[in-house]
């Protein structure tokens, strides 16, 4: 019996020794495994913290004008921009030992296990803030062991590579608060209509309770349960030493002013412009769609809210609500190319098609300044004359005869100057110039001015029969306004990623592509459409809006059967306006033919209200200004009834004085002199 006991004891010692050895081996394996996990986590390095966030769009003064519409509201704010009360409330209720553990609160885990066993159900959570953040960033919210192991691994990686501040900041910016609001900033704006930095203790303690169950503890879902949850959070804050009992009692009974709306929805400004900005982010900055929609970008644009509102106001005022006609408008700073206002149609909700940047329409006579700039390059001057009369052009190359017409079939039936032809929009003068220069000259000139649409090498091109975009025409006229420097339509000044890093910043470098003297001479000629001194067989084309304008402008109107245009500028702003039907239907009503001019004139006045009245400043060299008789372009004498101060490229100014009004000239001598005169162009190309 003693022997059996001794053998049993030896057997027990043997098993115990084996158990201890196996336990030690197991512990060593676990330590090796744990070390391996840590090493692997270290090798992998820091996991990325980027999360889907709303991209925000700002006007030129920093005002929020809109955001990416993904159905989720996400804004990233730094810890310094979050109310300390909200930070403390969140830590108190979610993970009071956050600053003292390394990702896992083992004491809390043990307590949760005991509670679950006692209740025979899962009644208590033990996830730390770091674990929750790992889940929000990288994993689904399923309850599988695989997900839990992945969560633990990501938790280790987060704790190894990021500070507690970075983890807490990320958690607060990713947690879901219900109603499409992700993160404290979106939640603060939705529930209380304010930034997270401005939350009171009462509001912070209410907000901190929502993530546990947004459908249960949201004040909009159940105010009674929300208040109960708030009281629990306030009590934990007292227990953790963040606030006093008195402060908790005051916060518990403090009235709460709830908002219940996403504030950015109210800030939907200039929708056509915002679409154009998104397109620029994609095609010019080469960002992908997901980054644009959910990259948390901050996009600072060129939009001027005051001028945008002025554009929309004038369109609503002058375009009849019963009319189906559409409008495209682009206003730009001619010095920088910054687009200050854009309207792509009458109603974005009905038609998001952007007529300001997408539609290609015939520009009519607004193409003439580009033609006449080329003419100045080939020796023309504001005093160059041609005969304005009913004309049929015949061609030797088999091309069909071409007979352009002036508005209302009115002609001077005599010589007119280039300056007057531009002011009254004489079509015969334009076609003659076009053919004299060669039909390819205007095409090359259009390219120089930044027009990219295809143009046909035909006689009618001088009258704007090849389509262009509104934004490109605004850009072309900007080059006249800025003295000949190349600009491009700019919509974006700066783009920051969700961390505030600048990934794009506009550079202002503008190469000169036009001769400054010729550009100024063209500008001075374009002021002629508002100058009654240039009235001739017809009134200047800007006469219908003279009563609406109070400062110097240069510009040109244009019309085809289906399109109505007005493009003009001051030294500070250039604006192009197009009106017409999407289907190319003829514009027949008289009122509809005036929309473009009326909108342009009144928009310019309102947009520039309060800004200094500036005249167009000539360049220091290269031009000379003289008084001429606007009817014949010769130097004016004191006997001329009308004298107009006109600029010329130096060296091309007229030298002959007007003799039409000299009192002592003999009638026969005058008639004889007129008979001897032969127009210069007929010496080169005698049209019939």
Attribute tags:
688 residues; alpha+beta; Penicillin binding protein transpeptidase fold; 5-stranded antiparallel sheet; 16 strands; protease; cell membrane; Lysozyme-like_dom_sf
Briefly say what this structure is.
With 688 residues, the protein is of the alpha+beta class.
Describe this structure in words.
This protein is of the alpha+beta class and 688 residues long. Among the domains are: 8-44; 75-265, Penicillin binding protein transpeptidase fold, CATH 1.10.3810.10; 623-683, no CATH class. It has helices spanning 2-44, 84-94, 106-119, 129-138, 145-161, 164-174, 184-192, 201-208, 214-217, 223-239, 245-253, 271-283, 289-294, 305-318, 368-377, 418-424, 427-437, 439-448, 470-481, 516-526, 590-593, 595-607, 667-676; strands at 56-58, 64-67, 73-74, 181-182, 298-301, 326-332, 339-343, 385-388, 414-417, 492-496, 502-505, 554-559, 563-569, 574-580, 623-628, 644-649. Strands 2-1-5-10-11 form a 5-stranded mixed β-sheet, covered by helices on one side. The protein has a 5-stranded antiparallel β-sheet with strand order 7-6-14-13-12, with helices on both faces. Strands 3-4 form a two-stranded parallel sheet. Residues 118-124, 664-669 and 683-688 have low confidence and may be disordered.
